[in-house]
Specification:
By secondary structure, this protein is α/β, with parallel strands linked by helices. The chain is built from 21 helices and 16 strands. The protein has four domains: about 80 residues, no CATH class; about 50 residues, Alpha-Beta Plaits (2-Layer Sandwich), CATH 3.30.70.20; about 55 residues, Alpha-Beta Plaits; about 270 residues, Fe-only Hydrogenase (Larger Subunit), Chain L, domain 3, CATH 3.40.950.10. The strands form six sheets. A four-stranded parallel sheet has the order 10-9-12-13, with helices on both faces. A four-stranded parallel sheet has the order 11-15-14-16, covered by helices on one side. It has a two-stranded antiparallel ribbon with strand order 1-8. The longest helix has 21 residues. It is globular and about 75 Å long.
Length: about 500
C-alpha cells in the first residue's frame, strides 16, 4: 500500500477503518469506540499532526462518525458520545446520499486562490508583468512587482510573461481539483460542497491536504453482512489488480479469508458492457450520428446530466460494468449481498441507484480491513480466475475501454477513438464543442480521473504504478488482445 506511506491523510483513513473493524470483530464496537481517538493519539505519543493532540482527537472523532456512515453537517452536538453513533449505525444499514461530507474543524480555511509575487522577483527593467496586465493591477514598489488584489482578475498574464517565473499561482487544492466547481469557500472561509453541482468524483477528497473532505463509509454494514449467515459476493473492479502485491489470483483468496463467499470479476461485466457499446456505436454510426461517448464512468455521466445536458444524446445507453457484474452475481445467487470493491467514490453514488448493488468499499477500505485482519495478499495462495477477457481487465487504464470497443466493432465502420483523460473545466468545454461538429473522432472515451480508474479517489497505489500492473495482467491473460491501441487523439 505505497500511497499510505506517502500521504498521512490516507494513513488516517486506513487507521480509522482498521480500528472500527477491530472493535466490531471483538464484539465491543459500542463499548470501545469512544477510546479510538485516544488509542490513535495517546498522550505520550509522537504521531501528532495538528496544532495539539486535542484537535487531533477531535478530528479523529469526526472521521469515525463519517466511517460509521453519518453526515457530519447533520451532527450539531459535539457532546454526543461516539457509542451512540455506533449503536445507531448497528441498527441502520441503508447508505444514503450525499456520500461526501466536510469536517469543518479540519479545514484550514485556505487563502483565496490568487497570483503572488515571490522572492524570485528581480524588479527587472523589462517590466513584462506590468506590461502584460490589462487591468493595471501591477506596480513596482520598492524595486519589486506588487499585485493589487482589488484590481487583479486572476487572468494569469503576469505569470505567463515573467522571465524569472517569479509570479506563482496560489491555489485552493480542493477547488482546483473539482472539474465542475462544486466546492467553494463558505461565509466563514471553510469548504462547502454544492451538492446540486457535485458529481461525487471524489477529486476534492483526494486533493485536500488537511483531510477535511471525507466520505460516508459502508464499512460497518459490510462487516455486519460478512458476520451474518447471508451469502456475500465481492464484485472486484479491474483496477484492483494493481493495488496489492501478489496480483488478482491472490487478492481473490484474501477476500475469501476476509469472509466473502464468492468473488466476481467486474471485468466480466466489462466484457458485456463492451459488447453493448460496440453494438450501440455501430447503430449510431449507421443512422448518421457524428460520435458517441462511453457511459462507464459514473462521475462523467453525472457531469453531463448536471452541467452539459446537450451531450446526453451522445452518451451510450449501456449500463456500467459494475451493474452487469452484479447481474452475473445475482444470476448465480439471487439472494446474495453484492459488495462492489472499487477505486471511486462516484461508484458509491451509482450503487445507491442500482438495486443490484448493496454496498461499496473503496480499495482503501478493503485494504484497511485486510490489514486489520492480518491478511497479507502476497502470502495467500492463488485462486483460479474467471473467464473475463484481457480487454475487460484493461478497462481500468485510460484507453482500455476504447480499445475493447474498437476490437468488437467490426469492419462496417472504422472506429476513430478520442480520449478525455481526466475531467476539468477545459475538458468539459472541449466536450461541448464536439456537439457542434468539432469532434476529431467518432468514439469518445471519458475518464473523470487522469490515468483512468487507477487514478480514482479511493486507490492505494500511485496511478502510474497501478496502471503498469493492470496492463501487465491484462496482457498476460489475453495476449495481444489486451494491448491498448494508440488513440488518434489524446486530450
Amino acid at each position: 500500500m505505497a500511497l499510505s506511506n506517502k500521504n498521512m491523510v490516507c494513513a488516517l483513513r486506513l487507521g480509522v477503518i482498521g480500528h472500527v473493524a477491530q472493535a466490531f470483530w471483538n464484539g465491543r464496537l459500542a463499548e470501545t469506540v469512544d477510546r479510538i481517538p485516544h488509542d490513535m493519539r495517546p498522550r505520550n505519543g509522537r504521531k501528532q499532526t495538528r496544532c495539539c493532540i486535542y484537535k487531533d482527537r477531535a478530528i479523529l472523532r469526526e472521521r469515525i462518525i463519517a466511517a460509521l456512515g453519518f453526515r457530519l453537517e447533520d451532527e450539531q452536538d459535539d457532546s454526543i458520545p461516539l457509542r451512540q453513533f455506533a449503536q445507531r449505525a448497528l441498527e441502520e444499514q441503508t447508505p444514503r446520499r450525499p456520500v461526501l461530507t466536510i469536517c469543518d474543524i479540519a479545514c484550514h480555511s485556505c487563502m483565496k486562490a490568487r497570483y503572488f509575487v515571490s522572492d524570485a522577483c528581480q524588479g527587472c527593467v523589462a517590466r513584462s508583468c506590468a506590461g502584460s496586465c490589462r487591468f493595471g493591477a501591477i506596480a513596482i514598489v520598492q524595486g519589486r512587482a506588487h499585485i493589487d488584489p482589488d484590481k487583479c482578475r486572476n487572468c494569469g498574464q503576469c505569470h505567463a510573461h515573467c522571465p524569472y517565473h517569479a509570479i506563482v499561482r496560489l491555489t485552493v487544492p480542493c477547488e482546483a481539483a473539482c472539474p465542475v466547481q462544486a466546492i467553494r469557500k463558505g461565509v466563514e472561509g471553510r469548504a462547502e460542497i454544492d451538492f446540486a453541482r457535485c458529481t461525487s468524483c471524489g477529486r476534492c477528497l483526494r486533493a485536500c491536504p488537511s483531510g477535511a473532505v471525507m466520505e460516508r463509509s459502508d464499512v460497518l454494514p459490510v462487516l455486519m453482512a460478512l458476520a451474518s449467515p447471508r451469502h456475500v459476493t465481492a464484485l472486484v473492479a479491474p483496477a484492483m489488480a494493481g493495488q496489492f502485491k501478489g496480483g488478482l489470483p491472490r487478492i481473490i483468496t484474501a477476500l475469501k479469508k476476509l469472509g466473502f463467499d464468492e468473488v466476481v470479476e467486474v471485468a466480466a461485466g466489462a466484457d458485456l458492457a463492451s459488447e453493448q457499446d460496440a453494438r450501440h456505436w455501430a447503430e449510431r454510426m449507421q443512422r448518421g450520428d457524428t460520435f458517441m461517448t462511453t457511459s462507464f464512468c459514473p462521475a462523467y455521466v453525472e457531469a453531463v446530466r448536471r452541467h452539459a445536458p446537450e451531450l446526453l444524446p451522445f452518451v451510450s445507453e449501456s449500463r456500467t460494468p459494475m451493474h452487469y457484474a452484479a447481474e452475473i452475481s445475482r444470476a448465480g445467487h439471487p439472494d446474495t449481498v453484492n459488495v462492489f470493491l472499487g477505486p471511486c467514490v462516484a461508484q458509491r453514488t451509482e450503487a445507491l441507484g442500482d438495486p443490484l448493488v448493496d454496498f461499496v468499499l473503496t480499495f482503501e477500505e478493503a485494504g484497511a480491513l485486510l490489514d486489520a485482519r492480518g491478511i497479507r495478499v502476497d502470502e495467500c495462495e492463488a485462486s483460479p480466475l474467471g473467464t473475463a477477457s484481457g480487454a475487460g481487465r484493461g478497462y481500468a487504464v485510460t484507453g482500455g475501454v476504447a480499445a475493447a470497443i474498437r476490437a468488437l466493432a467490426g469492419d462496417a465502420c472504422a472506429v476513430h477513438p478520442v480520449c478525455i483523460n481526466g475531467l476539468s473545466p477545459q475538458a468539459m468545454r472541449r466536450l461541448r464543442s464536439y456537439v457542434d461538429g468539432d469532434c476529431p473522432g467518432n468514439l469518445v472515451e471519458v475518464m473523470a480521473c487522469a490515468g483512468g480508474c487507477v487514478g480514482g479517489s479511493g486507490v492505494l497505489v500511485e496511478p502510474d504504478t497501478a496502471a503498469r500492473l493492470v496492463e501487465r495482467f491484462a496482457r498476460a491473460t489475453c495476449g495481444s488482445a489486451a494491448r491498448h491501441e494508440s488513440l488518434t487523439a489524446h486530450e
